[in-house]
Write a structure and sequence with these properties.
The complex is a heterodimer of chains A (630) and B (220).
Chain A lengths: L1 E6 H11 L4 E4 L6 H8 L8 E4 L3 H13 L3 E7 H17 L4 E8 L13 H7 L3 E2 L4 H18 L3 E6 H4 L2 E6 L16 H4 L4 H25 L3 E3 L7 E6 L6 H10 L15 E6 L1 E3 L3 H10 L2 E5 L5 H13 L5 E2 L14 H12 L12 H5 L13 H15 L8 E3 L24 H11 L6 E6 H17 L4 E7 L28 H7 L4 E5 L4 H13 L3 E7 L3 H6 L6 E4 L9 H6 L4 E3 L4 E3 L9 H5 L5 E4 L2
Parallel strand pairs in A: 2-3, 2-4, 4-5, 5-7, 6-7, 10-11, 10-13, 13-14, 15-16, 16-17, 17-19, 18-19
Antiparallel strand pairs in A: 1-8, 6-12, 9-11, 20-23, 21-22
Helix pairs in contact in A: 1-2, 1-6, 3-4, 6-9, 10-13, 11-12, 15-19, 16-17
Chain B lengths: L2 E2 L7 H8 L4 E8 L4 H15 L3 E6 L8 E8 L13 E6 L12 E10 L6 H4 L8 H10 L3 E5 L6 E2 L2 E2 L2 H12 L2 H4 L2 H11 L4 H12 L4 E2 L1
Parallel strand pairs in B: 2-5, 5-6, 6-7
Antiparallel strand pairs in B: 1-10, 2-4, 3-4, 7-10, 8-9
The chains are: A alpha/beta (630), B alpha/beta (220).
């Protein structure tokens, strides 16, 4: 074993290797991406396979097939990805597995990376699947082999859930050698009662079995001792049920609460001696026996968990069963919120409420007036980003066609392409889910709009879930324009490969699915390929598409500038003609490029940042920007 | 902003043992592209080398560059959650003047607040369509917390062969020099950590760190 400084995501990946995982699939999504990404960057040998799959549903089906064939598989995704995978996973859950299937899902309380703030524990409950949750980075490593063992012993897929603050934290972890996957003959089992859902008898039997498996899982988790009950020596005092990352704040929170006058005095015993704690690492099933034991021991109880009150609801149920008369402090009594991530502040707040409801405690001064002075920093696309040219072309085409921007719906999608919603473009109107832009646009077409409707989407998002929407639009002969902004990478999540990534950059032996061949084959009537760095041509193509009937697709192609620059490639260079520049600021207000700033007598282009895309030169009314490399 | 501090004149080693084992929280922030995440990584490497428990939690939102970036470093805790509670950070290192205000809620009274006064104006500010805080406003807000403000003038960032040294490593050097961080992490050990982190730019980075150790910091 060696102590290494690793992230929670890496801990999950290394823990899976330690557990002898054979295949890992997944789709990128913050905060989960680092797990599979770290495996992709390792030399793993031929007995393992790791891949970024087209979407989470595909990824879970591959992993499910592996587990049915008796092998150890893992599948990784962010919480939104679990929504995509859920259809298949429900079915696999009800069938059970022969090998091991561990689903690593990372939630984002506080929604740091955008998207719906959702609690994936709800899926565990809905699917009757066991779920384990590390409370620290080191535990993420230690839990993984147990998760695989649990999956095999109870014959069920098992969730390992983490949250942003654990997934992205770095901490020292005692890491052991990876264990090669066990050589197992693939199992081919003919059993339609297990592997199909054909008919009520089969479906109901499977429903019964999945419930039984969860019960067994609860028993195994108890044997593993994952849910730690630390009882105060004497009955009474305060009980704390803490789940997930909140466990890691307990020590600090208790100290601060005690310093703020929280005490549980009964003569001889006082303070922290009177606190009993249940640390929940197996959040599904909620450990009923331990909860009951705690409730029977304490006077009042506090429940700490981020987002939804899933554990709290079970505690209330157990309290009802045993006739618990103390106070139950959590979200449902209004003490804590169902929104945002939790830290020490929430822990202290709940402990104070549990200990002395009349003691509000001294709230920290949050100095909110200081934050009101902060200059807002809306995020925009990088210098050299090809998406900039596409937004500019859309905006210019609308102006040329005498269309007002607030009359033309431009639907947006997930990934970097959504940044077109911000200044200075304000091109994109909305964001729903992977691939939604196309079908959302179809909805707007049916609404009776007389103006053209445009959908925008990135390459990876199109492969992921945009294709069904486009096929639907083609089939129903809907008049809309889809712009696929193809930068060759799944960029926002940290530059993963996708089916359209150039073969040279894909893992060895992979095939590039070329959008320029795929899209016309889908029955699209009018297909254009543009270079977003050629503003006039790109604008002309958008204009033409908007005037044509039927489904039009514009493939806007240029590699992500970050990736190109990592290989030492620049599109060119730009130089300012100081004499010619009038400081009209058009280059800044139209492109919003982070490489351009205002100087004394002329604009200044940061040489190191500039990618040489030339878009600023193309909008300068005074030809004051010279583009080299053309 | 009056007193400039000269060379280090206390033996760091002697106080270090006393500081070991005492939890120490560092809240770093700035703008994406300033190397704030790297600063957190370097402190973590230093902690690992010193055998101190550490948890480093970077948050950078969606932007590759130009967005707000924070890193929360928690040193010497047996078990710790990733986030520093408000009013509890022993040290704030702010790499950008306006962003510094976001950290005011985190520094503890009596803690250190190191402000590197770099100004990175968002586009709207540059175009004169939005306000940007003055240095006086920022200093005032830091003073109200009861923390000790150390101001590092970006004009003082030394050059080497015509190019400015990396500001993040320079500021880290200054932090080790003039704040409580120097009692947790040894300056020489950190210089080694900095040099070993990069294969190609080891000399430049070590030079930046050492320049930081000798930087003129104003205790305002």
């Amino acid at each position: 074993m060696t102590i290494r400084l690793i992230t929670g995501n890496e801990a999950v990946a290394l823990g899976a290797l330690r557990a002898g995982v054979k295949v890992v699939t997944g789709y990128p999504g913050t905060p989960s991406s680092g797990a599979l990404a770290s495996l992709v960057s390792m030399e793993l040998g031929d007995d393992r396979h790791v891949e970024w799959s087209t979407n989470e549903k595909v990824a879970i089906e591959i992993a499910g097939g592996l587990a049915w064939a008796g092998q150890r598989a893992m599948c990784t995704m962010k919480m939104s990805g679990l929504n995509v995978a859920s259809d298949a996973l429900f079915s696999i859950a009800h069938s059970g597995v022969n090998g091991a299937l561990v689903i690593y899902v990372a939630d984002d309380p506080g929604a740091h990376a955008g998207m719906v703030e959702q609690d994936s524990r709800g899926y565990a409950r809905m699917m009757d699947l066991p779920m384990l949750e590390p409370t620290t980075v080191a535990e993420a490593y230690e839990l993984m082999p147990l998760a695989f063992e649990l999956s095999e012993r109870c014959g069920s897929p098992v969730f390992v859930r983490s949250v942003t603050s654990i997934a992205n934290s770095h901490a020292p972890v005692d890491v052991g050698e990876p264990v090669p996957p066990e050589e197992r003959e693939p199992i081919l089992e003919w059993d339609i009662t297990k592997y199909t859902k054909a008919g009520s008898a089969i479906a109901q039997a499977q429903h019964r079995q999945v419930i039984e498996r969860l019960g067994r899982a609860g028993e195994i988790v108890r044997q593993m001792g994952l849910n730690e009950l630390q009882m105060a020596e004497h009955p009474g005092g305060l009980g704390i049920v803490a789940a997930g990352v909140t466990v890691s704040y307990l020590g600090e929170g208790l100290k601060i609460a005690a310093a703020q006058g929280c005490g549980w005095f009964d003569g001889a015993h006082h303070g922290l001696e009177r606190v009993s704690v249940l640390k929940v690492r197996g959040t599904n099933p909620v450990p009923e026996e331990e909860v009951r034991a705690l409730l029977e021991h304490v006077e009042d109880v506090v429940i700490l968990e981020e987002l939804e009150p899933y554990v709290e609801e079970r505690v209330i149920l157990e309290a009802h069963r045993i006739g618990f008369e103390g106070r139950i402090v959590g979200k449902l009594d209004g003490t804590l919120e169902r929104v945002g991530s939790y830290g020490v502040r929430e822990v202290v707040c709940a402990i104070l409420a549990g200990c002395k409801p009349d003691l509000s405690g001294s709230k920290p001064d949050l100095h909110e007036e200081a934050e009101e002075l902060v200059a807002a920093r809306p995020i925009t696309v990088c210098a050299g980003c090809p998406h900039r040219g596409t937004y500019m072309a859309i905006n210019q085409a609308l102006r040329n066609l005498k269309l007002k921007k607030d009359e033309v719906m431009v639907t947006g999608d997930i990934g970097c392409t959504i940044l077109g919603m911000n200044e200075p473009f304000e091109t994109v109107w909305n964001e729903v889910a992977m691939g939604s832009s196309v079908s959302l646009a179809q909805g707007y077409v049916y609404s009776g709009l007389e103006t053209p409707v445009i959908a925008t989407i990135g390459d990876s998002t199109f492969f992921h879930a945009g294709m069904p929407g486009l096929i639907n639009a083609v089939q129903h002969r809907v008049s809309l324009t889809l712009i696929i902004m193809d930068n060759g990478w799944t960029a926002m999540t940290g530059m993963q490969t996708n089916p359209g990534t150039e073969e040279a950059f894909q893992p060895k032996g992979n095939y590039q699915v070329d959008l320029a061949k795929l899209v016309p084959a889908m029955g699209v009537e009018h297909f254009f390929v543009i270079d977003p760095f050629q503003l006039d041509e790109a604008t002309a193509a958008v204009e033409k598409a908007l005037e044509l009937p039927g489904v039009k697709v514009i493939l806007s192609r240029q590699e992500c500038a970050i990736q190109a620059q990592r290989r030492g490639i620049k599109a060119g260079a730009a130089e300012v003609d100081v004499e010619a520049c009038t400081l009209c600021r058009k280059c800044i207000t139209i492109t919003g490029c982070p490489a351009i700033s205002l100087g004394e007598d002329a604009i200044v282009i940061d040489e190191a940042l500039c990618y040489g895309c030339g878009l600023c030169a193309q909008v300068c009314p005074f030809d004051a920007i010279e583009r080299e490399g053309e | 902003m009056s007193r400039s501090v000269g060379h280090s004149h206390h033996a760091l080693g002697s106080t270090q043992d006393a500081a070991r084992g005492t939890p120490y929280d560092v809240y770093l922030l700035g703008v994406g592209g300033q190397g704030v995440v790297t600063m957190g990584d370097l402190i973590a490497d230093g902690a690992m080398e010193a055998g101190l428990p550490v948890n480093v939690y970077p948050t950078k939102g969606m932007a590759q560059r130009g967005g707000s970036v924070t890193v929360q470093v928690r040193l010497s805790y047996e078990v710790t959650g990733p986030e520093i509670p408000e009013g509890e950070a022993d040290l704030v290192i702010a790499m950008e003047r306006s962003e510094a205000l976001r950290a005011v809620r985190y520094v503890r009274p009596g803690g250190d607040f190191l402000l590197y006064g770099h100004v990175w104006e968002p586009t709207k500010v540059m175009l004169g369509r939005a306000d940007y805080p003055t240095l006086e406003q920022v200093c005032q807000k830091v003073h109200e917390t009861g923390a000790e403000l150390h101001y590092l003038d970006p004009q003082g960032l030394p050059q080497r062969e015509g190019r400015p040294l990396p500001a993040n490593v320079y500021v880290l050097g200054a932090a080790v020099r003039c704040t409580g961080l120097g009692r947790v992490l040894d300056a020489e050990a950190m210089a080694g950590v900095v040099a070993r982190r990069w294969e190609t730019y080891a000399t430049v980075n070590e030079a930046a760190f050492r320049a930081g150790l000798e930087a003129g910091v104003d205790d305002a």
